[in-house]
Amino acid sequence: MNKKFPENFLWGGAVAANQCEGAYDEDGKGLSIEDVTPKGIRGPITKEPTEENLKLKGIDFYHKYKEDIKLFSEMGFKVFRLSIAWTRIFPNGDEENPNELGLEFYDDIFDECHKYGIEPLVTISHYEMPLYLAKKYNGWSSRKTIDFFEKYVRTIFNRYKNKVKYWLTFNEINSIIHMPLLAGIMTPADKITKSEIYQAIHHQLVASALATKIGHEIIPNSKIGCMVIAVPIYPLTPDPEDVMTAFKADRENLFFTDVQVKGKYPFYIKRYFKENNIDLKIELGDEEILKNTVDFISFSYYMSACASSKSEENKKSGNMIMGVKNPYLKESEWGWQIDPKGLRYVLNTFYERYDKPLFIVENGLGAKDELIEDENGNKTVIDDYRIKYLNDHIIEIKEAIEDGVEVMGYTSWGCIDLVSASTAEMSKRYGFIYVDRNDDGSGTLSRYKKKSFYWYKELIETNGESL
Ligand code: BGP
């Protein structure tokens, strides 16, 4: 059987502003939560940016974006996923007028993409919030934050309406359950109540639906998606107790897509709220706003997890979401369990549940790379392990497409090496392009093509036939 990717399949790569741009205080940018978390997204935060905070410097995409986008075009990217830093547009979040220099920066990036026929896919909020709003309003805990966010999205939709068609509201919106700091919530993680977290989630869901509504009004041909972290949760054993534990854990994640895709709170959440003493303040009009559903579902996929009703392990976070180790799977150097088939499973289960197009906007292997010199004296990385990981996952996408699932595209994570979100280090690399920068901040920032660069180029050129 000759399985094929659709002709208009959007191949590309993904990055996030705070992990690649650097220039944290240039051209009027304000501080974001990410600028003061030198140890990664779980915190703790520091009073002000510290020297060790590599995120402040990223990979200097702010000044090198032309060179980088040119390299992406060489690989044949059809799409480039990036995020706008809210604090470049509204440095504190509550200003009357936006920062023109910040707006111009993204204008230039989008122009550069279009120069090569690359479609930008923009995440409106990727793991960040103006530090000022976090301190003053406790981030998404406060309803006020919706107003500031609304102003921000109106500004960027109006400004980029002729340049950007594909948008995502919040990156991995469901990760807030485990990492409230990402929602700008300054209450220490051990003091925060479930009620407070779900109130913040409610505000974010309303904000996401509002952004979808406004986006559709300002840019009628736009495609606006939600973005979640997809981790299929398997029962560790066939014990029905394990099956139920896995089912419930899965639902905790699916809740977010349920609301964003179906436009209302799902039936099962009532019981969950009751059993967890969650009492939400839902204002008049919120339900109407939530009806503004997304056009497609996008997600990150790195791993699957197992759930067990017995194990204490279940409560600990073995990875980003939850789970116990699956004895059948190998894992990355950071303990992320590698499960290509899980991707086909996720694609099918999402499509079955929602009947909406899907977009894999993050996937990849974080690994330590060694820069070597090839026989011609060129510096490169022989990253066969990365090629294998990507190859195995993309084969499963092809399978899912053959199953009948509608998949819009694939953007591999960190297409150019960048700072890791969870460790804040450079040495966990995902890219097709090596960036000479080390954990201690040293390095020339020069870019080098890895072996996977050529592999991906061929894959795109042949629309997946080279797999
Ligand atoms: C996702 C985030 C990204 C990214 C990726 C890899 O959860 O959306 O920002 O960094 O994970 O994670 P890490 O950088 O921790 O390896």
UniProtKB/TrEMBL annotation:
EC number per UniProt: 3.2.1.21
NCBIfam families from the UniProt entry: PRK09593.1, PRK09852.1
PROSITE patterns the record matches: GLYCOSYL_HYDROL_F1_1, GLYCOSYL_HYDROL_F1_2
Active site annotation, chain numbering: E362 (nucleophile)
GO annotation, cellular component aspect: cytosol
Annotated GO MF terms: beta-glucosidase activity
Native source species: Oceanotoga teriensis
Record protein name field: beta-glucosidase
Keyword Transferase included in the entry's annotation: no
Gene Ontology biological process terms in this record: cellulose catabolic process
InterPro entries, sorted: GH, GH_1_N_CS, Glyco_hydro_1, Glyco_hydro_1_AS
UniProt similarity note: Belongs to the glycosyl hydrolase 1 family.
UniProt keyword annotation of Zinc present: no
Reactions accelerated catalytically: Hydrolysis of terminal, non-reducing beta-D-glucosyl residues with release of beta-D-glucose
